[in-house]
Design a protein that fits this description.
Elements (H helix, E strand, L loop, with lengths): L1 H44 L3 H5 L1 H30 L2 E4 L15 E4 L19 H5 L2 H25 L8 E5 L4 E5 L25
Antiparallel strand pairs: 1-2, 3-4
Helix pairs in contact: 1-3, 1-5, 3-5
Keywords: Membrane, Transmembrane, Transmembrane helix
Amino acid sequence: MANDNKIKHLEFIQGIINRHNSNSFLIKGWTITISAALYALSGTIKETYLVLLALVPILMFWGLDAFYLSNERCFVDLYSSVSKGAFQLPTGKTLKEKFNANSSNVQNGVIDEFDMNFKKFKIWKDNTWVNVLFSKTILSFYITLLAITIIISVVFNHFNQNKSEIIKVETTINPKEFDVNLNAEPPTIINNIYPSKNSTDSLTRSK
C-alpha cells in the first residue's frame, strides 16, 4: 500500500512538472506572437515606438518564464527525493556543483506521503528565480528577441525618417494657370487652386 502511495505521489509531482513545462513553452510562444504583431503593426503605420513597445512583453514574459522554470526545478528535486525516500540539502544557499555531502552543513530528512512542499528546495541557488533568469536555458532565447527588437527599431527608424525638405516657392496665380518657381528639384505642387472642376495644373519654370 505504501508503495502504491509513493507511485501516486510521484505521478502528482510529474503532472505538476509537465504543467510548468507546458506553461514555459506557451510563454515563449506568446512572446514571439506579440512581438511579431507589434513589428508588423509598426511597419504598417510607420511608427517606430511600437517596435520598442515589444520590449515590455519580452521582459515581462522573461521574468514569468524564469518563475515557472524555477518552480519546475524545485519539483524535479522533490520528485527525486520522493523516489529516493529521503532528501539531503545544505543549510545555506549553495550551488549543487559545490555541495559537499560530507560536510557538517547538511540537513537530512524524509518526504511525507503526498507532501507537495517544494519551497525547501529553493535552498539550492540553481533553483532561485534570479539564477534561472540568467541561465543558459532561457537567456539565449530572450536576449536574441531583445537584440532583434532593437535592430528592427533602428532599421524602421532609418526608413521612417521624414526626408522631405522645406523649399522656397514663388507663385503667380491666375484663373487658367498655376505658375511655379522652385528653388529645388523636383518641382512639387503643395496646394492647387482651380477656377473650375475641369481645370488642370500647368507648371512653368520662371527664367
